[in-house]
Amino acid sequence: MADIGWLFGWAKENAIDIPLNADGTANIPKLFELYDEWRERNGGSSGTKSFPKPPKAYSFNRLNTKHHKDHAKEMGFKNPKEYEAAAVEFFNSDRGVLYYSEARNRYYRYEEKTGIFCVSMDGVVNTFNIYSKKKFDLIKRQDKLHE
């Protein structure tokens, strides 16, 4: 999970009850909503959603599967290690636009010019591939991405 300890600290400091899911775990998207509402009431928001800075990516999960080896080859990398290094470098760069999905608790980076698409959660890259603008726009709607 991304580093959201600050969000729990904010809730405690402001006597905000942590919203819970049916299974008793914290409802993180609802907690972000409460935080954004609090910021708006206290003059600290421009009306745009605010999300924590994503953790730096450091590795790729499931790197040695046939699926990922095929993607590495499709993208012109010599081996999975080169592919992993490129994925981590791209995610950690300022290229393209960084998005966040509250629904999936993941960060997405997409560079429209090249079509490079990358998804990371907890510092681990899960997806690195070339996506058309049409495919990205579909993911953007489905996963409810916000800049």
UniProtKB/TrEMBL annotation:
Highest taxon in the source lineage: Bacteria
Protein's recorded name: Uncharacterized protein
